[in-house]
Amino acid sequence: MSVFTFTQDNFDTEVLKSSTPVLVDFWAEWCGPCRMFSPIVDEFAEENPAAVKVGKVNVDEQPDLAARYGVMSIPTAILFKNGEIAATLVGVQPKTALEELIR
Amino acid sequence: MEEKVCDMLIVGGGPAGYTAALYGARAGLSVLVIEKLAPGGQMGTTDMVDNYPGFPEGINGFDLAMKMKAGAERFGARTVSAEVTALELAGPLKIAHTAKTAYQARTVVLAMGAHPRELGLPNERELRGKGVSYCATCDGMFYRGKSVAVIGGGETAVADALYLARLCERVTLIHRRDKLRAPMSQQKALEHTGKVGFLWDSQAVEFLADTRLTGLRVRNKKSGEEQALSCAGVFLAVGQVPDTDLLKGQVDLDGSGYVLAGEDTRTSLPGVFAAGDLRRKPLRQIVTAAADGAAAAQAAGEFLEE
Fold first, then answer.
1. How many angstroms separate the CA of residue B203 from the nearest CA in chain A?
2. DSSP string spanning B146-181?
């Protein structure tokens, strides 16, 4: 499944009201660790299409979303279940750490 | 699952690993790189690399990593994306275990690198991403217009303070000694910002926080006096820890965990070589990691011919 781009406009419908868990990767173009993390997130999304929806929030373009969830360090990956934060991972993570979130 | 035996297995895909891969593959060896995250290691997280020769305008660390990977792949090196969970290095056939596979090789290049050291204060991990950061270029913009602190006195600390001075209202550099280790030109640049204050002979002894960091308690090591410093963020640049846990009890390490290997990168075990930041050496830079990688591939090639 493709990786979503989440914005202020679609966050409620695509993330908070999603029936499947959603992993949100907060990132920015100029952030080196984010660029390392991004292909790992993509691979995780491809391999687990049934278990989880995956998308990214560009913190430059969506500062309000980053502020709303208190993101002060990127990359940060937040897992949402039924509209609530189920887990937060700060910093680059191996794919296994993402897999553990949905196990 | 088992794979066929390769000539050279490289653990870690930073500049040391991919240079070893390039030299090994170019010499005709079958080469496999196992990388747990993404190419580049610490280099990959660096916004702008200005001290790797050949890039007069500087280059983004992740872009440089992808170029190094592509250069090695051009000669047939392969990369596996997985975390090595155990290494068997003693016998003639070396084995690297990941969650799903056991990779076998005749030689191994250890290139796992190092990671930023934590300060070791009790609530440090809880506050990561809530005021505590190890990457100024990543997180600086979240502290625009606020007061921050940088802890450390080396090149990374000074580069962080310079970067943050462009964004933040006030930067306080806290260093346990009475002078910096960074080059003079950088120190001058710090003073020119007019935004950086210094606390010498000082260490942070407590992170003050409610739901996120609100400040630091700082102790002057000479006078013993303590003061509270109000800040929204603290950036840690207090050195590195080598990623050598998997090697304990197998390869000789020094007291800080760095692998004991000379310029030829040979470790205490035959057929096992150490390249890059995890080796005990005087200067840890991308260019010295790359140099180690070349030496390791050469040594591995010689070992295979013995």
1. 23
2. SEEEEE--SHHHHHHHHHHHTTSSEEEEE-SSSS--
Q: Which residue out of A35, A42, A46 would a mutagenesis test of the B interface target, given it has the greatest number of B Cβ atoms within 10 Å?
A: A35
Residues of chain B predicted below pLDDT 70 = 1-3
pLDDT band at A1 (very low <50, low <70, confident <90, very high): low
pTM of the model: 0.85
Token pair listed for B145: 């217009």
Interface of A with B in 16-75 (CB under 8 A): 28, 30-37, 39-40, 43, 66, 70-75
pLDDT greater than 60 at residue A79: yes
Q: B62 in contact with A at a CB cutoff of 8 Å?
A: yes
Q: Classify residue B117 by its DSSP letter.
A: P
Tell me which range, A28-32, A51-55, A93-97, is most confidently predicted by mean pLDDT. Answer: A51-55
d(CA A5, CA A22): 12
By DSSP bridging, strand B233-236 and strand B132-133 are parallel
Which residues, in sequence order, are CB contacts of B37 under 8 Å at separation 6+?
A: A36, A37, A40, A92, A93, A94
Q: Give the model's pLDDT for residue B170.
A: 97
CB contact under 8 A, A73 and B40: no
